[in-house]
Design goal:
Layout lengths: L12 E2 L4 E2 L11 H18 L5 H15 L26 H9 L2 E7 L6 E10 L2 E12 L4 E4 L20 E14 L10 E3 L4 E4 L10 E3 L11 E3 L8 E5 L14 E4 L11 E3 L1 H10 L7 E6 H11 L3
Parallel strand pairs: 3-15, 6-7, 7-8, 13-14
Antiparallel strand pairs: 1-2, 3-4, 4-5, 7-12, 7-15, 9-10, 9-11, 12-13
Helix pairs in contact: 1-2
Amino acid sequence: MLDAGRPRPAFSFDYSGLAFCHHERICHHERSRDLIFLRDLCYFANFAWNSYYFHVNRILILLLMFSIAFMPANAQKKKTTKKPAPKPTANAPLPDPYRDILANAQQSLVVTVSGWNSIDGTLQRFEKHDGKWQEVGQKFPIVVGKSGLGWDGITDPPSKSGQPIKKEGDGRSPAGIFKITELFGFDQSRDAKLPYRPLTESIECVDDVSSQSYNEIVDRKEMPNPDWNSSEKMRTIDVYQIGAVVDYNSPKIPDAGSCIFLHIWKGPGHGTAGCTAMEESHVKELAGWLDEKKQPILIQLPQAMYEGLRELWQLP
């Protein structure tokens, strides 16, 4: 208690609430650690007020109390800086099914899109000379499946961290490395370096997962007992006037996806059912450039994945 002959200080302490009555805006601290510290200081300060000999201590204590009381809450905590999100990387080894395909290829088409769910992307041609990949021509725009890309459904994917896997009817184009095996189109014949299949009214690509002919291009007239209920009648599809076959799911694993082609697009932003499409002039250009002897391939990946795997897999 203060001496009766001494003036009462201009402010008082409420130990139960640990509130400074003269400064209500800093009342009722909710930080338990600070409250305990302030409580102890209050006890000590009260002792100092009743002493005639601790004037200096009283001033120092008050300064310390006020500096703590008025210190912003976030200033009393250790400052932490938010680390930037890591850039997508990939460090998976090259899957065995891709190894021979990539090693033997002398021509490649590299298709990249900005993300797994992106439709619009670009295509760049490459050709190997003296063991080194070199760009051919200019990069041009393409579109992939209306749902984006999905990892090759028949190969153990290099990464399984929430990335989609290609399935039948999912609207995704397959991501991975694939051979380009033949051309097709409405013309009766074509001067090309890849085998060419003219599309007649009876040519179909079977997408019925229960059929023995699943993922095959067949001539219905030559099939004595067609066992499918679903197929693409290729001659009736305008964007198939000229195209190329991507050798995807040749083991015909049910539900892994079927009938994957390179063909004419309907324009930017118009995704396909799972193929890769581009302007007619570019399809024709590819049809004249692709060479069976150079074992051409399609490399199709999201841009970040392609950049992450490029050196590891020795991609173009």
